[in-house]
Amino acid sequence: MVAETTLAADDLIMPLFVRPGKKVHREITSMPGNYQMSVDRLVREVVALKDAGVNAAILFGIPETKDALGTSGFDDNGIVQRAVRAIKEEVDDFIVITDVCLCEYTDHGHCGVLDGDKVDNDSTLELLAKMALSHVRAGADLVAPSDMMDGRVARIRAALDAEHFTDVPIMAYSAKYASAFYGPFREAAESHPKFGDRKSYQMDAPNSDEALREVRLDIAEGADIVMVKPALAYLDIISRVKHETGYPVAAYSVSGEFAMVKAAAAKGWLNERAVALEILTAIRRAGADLILTYWAKDAAKWLKE
Ligand code: PBG
């Protein structure tokens, strides 16, 4: 009765990885229990999530082809667009969120267009807007730009509004740090940068005021939900963002946070279930309204038991 924080299945968003093919269900080595799936298997997984009580998933695509501009990412018949259409056709009342970023679709693995060996912010915006629009045309309920280019929320908002998608919200990865915790994800999404790192566009771990500036910029540009990522090592940022903006806050408990608990649990050093629920509760206590987590389905089941 006196618990100050609750954790419920409908606070959780499951990240899912979709790739071409049929009956593909390939486990991601560093993220046990998570798979790259073809569209047919993905739809089944969404049904299983819904049965477990999870209402939302965020989709990442592994395309058939990659090029310098990430063209396959804004193809109306691209892998994520096909996945969204299939889910929408076969599952009712399930929130489909799409990750909007070029890194899964570019052959160099960076989140934007290159000018020499640098990512060019402004020429990337147009492509992100095209990608978001094609996801929404396919039926996405929400788009989540994760590229960290400046100005992309405004650009995406304008593109959506111009096609009368005025009520499709944007969940912006606003305070996204250049983190070593993304390692397993890059195996899952096949999105390792081929050279350099993402430090020119993602944030620097020592900074907290900067996170607030980034969040405020996104809110001014029209973000409806703002995200902090990673979560566990950035609980202070989640707390500041929630308390200083009052906005809906999502926190992304990233691949490395999941993998380290899985690895310790496999050795018998930690109790996965107890630790996972403690971590997710702590993220909620810090101020997150929503949590993107690879434990979404398991946590929903644990919470029911
Ligand atoms: C794409 C993106 C990344 C993650 C989500 N969207 C990776 C990155 O920026 O390199 C990471 C998610 C995770 O580690 O679970 N830009």
Report the order of strands and helices.
EEEHEHEEEHEHEHHEHEHHEH
The whole-number mean of residue pLDDT values reads 97
Shape: globular
Low-confidence stretches: none
CATH architecture: Alpha-Beta Barrel
How much strand?
Answer: 15-25%
CATH superfamily: Aldolase class I
Terminal CA distance reads 19 Å
Main sheet attributes: strand count, strand direction, barrel closure: 10 strands, mixed
What class would the helix/strand composition place it in? Answer: alpha/beta
Topology, number of strands: 12
Number of domains: 1
Summary?
With 305 residues, this protein is α/β, with parallel strands linked by helices.
Would you mind describing this structure in some detail?
Strands 1, 2, 3, 4, 5, 8, 9, 10, 11 and 12 form a 10-stranded mixed sheet that branches. Strands 6-7 form a two-stranded antiparallel ribbon. It has 10 helices and 12 strands. The longest helix is centred in the middle third of the chain and has 18 residues, at 121-138. It has one domain (9-304): Aldolase class I (TIM Barrel, Alpha-Beta Barrel). It is of the alpha/beta class and 305 residues long. The mean pLDDT is 97. The protein is globular. Bound molecules: ligand PBG. Ligand PBG binds next to helix 5.
How do the strands and helices of this protein lay out in sequence?
Elements: E1 12-18, E2 25-27, E3 35-37, H1 39-52, E4 56-61, H2 79-90, E5 95-100, E6 113-115, E7 118-120, H3 121-138, E8 142-145, H4 152-162, E9 171-176, H5 183-188, H6 209-221, E10 225-229, H7 235-245, E11 249-253, H8 255-266, H9 272-286, E12 290-293, H10 296-304
Parallel strand pairs: 1-3, 1-4, 1-12, 4-5, 5-8, 9-10, 10-11, 11-12
Antiparallel strand pairs: 2-3, 6-7
